[in-house]
Design a protein that fits this description.
The chain is mainly α and 317 residues long. It is 76% helix and 3% strand.
Amino acid sequence: MENTNLSSVSRFIILGLSSQPNLEIILFIFFTIVYCISLAGNLVILILSSIDPGLNTPMYFFLGLLSFLDICCTSATVPKMLINFLSEDKSISFNGCVAQLFFFTWAMGIELLLLTVMAFDRYIAIGNPLRYTTIMSRRICIQITVAIWIIGSLNSTAHTYFTFQLPYCNDNKINHFFCEIMPLLMLACGDTYINEIVVFTADVILGMVCFLLTCISYIFIISTILKIRSAEGKRKAFSTCAAHISIVSVYYGAVIFTYIRPRSSLSLDRDKIVSALYAVITPSLNPIIYSLRNKEVKEAFKRVLKKVLPRRIKQTQ
């Protein structure tokens, strides 16, 4: 995106999570491990949901998309953060900051919409299993995906455009570990009223409305589960719901806490810790909570290994 505003700032300084060298080394090791786990786990889920016929269902189609978005979300912020832990130069170019903000908000916006779709998918699977494959057909899943992709892209474009149309004058130190909207607005030397309206409106829609729709889906899910006569059937259904609810709670709780508040109540030192939760930690938990403990995924992983390993052995002989 072109820098069309009148900003005199060509680079930003990212203050990060800590300024203590010893603590930065510990944080570097911790977030490197978390990032590797996130990449490996989400890549496994993405590959399995794409190539294994046993996972050719709407549920795993959306799980594959979730894994892809998690990879995008963490890759937009974590590599630069890891570099800053070890480098004395903690700056980022103006255009680099634009790109980081765009791709992070793009991935997060779509992910919130996708979590809502996944709740609806679980309701259809539990409440109307006989028509599940008809209602959630491949064509419908693709149409839903295109729709949320468009909404997420428009949301990210709006945030990025209005944020970087503001003038940035003297202070270029971002009190965060990446280019986030709120810390940037606090650096701007112009009127941010329109920006705050855009942020609040977008987060009410992507945060509160999606959360409300997810809650409605789960009200119907719980009502349906309570009608199941088998105790084992109830247990399995509740177990599936608990996995989704745990991720939804972390995402929506952190997003609502971070964004849907008046500017006067902001605390960036506190907010960047919360941001690390939903931007870095949660994407690494998704594969474990959703899939790696799932019997179907384990069986798919074994099938893929059985196909791949013999080929590798023959190639080396």
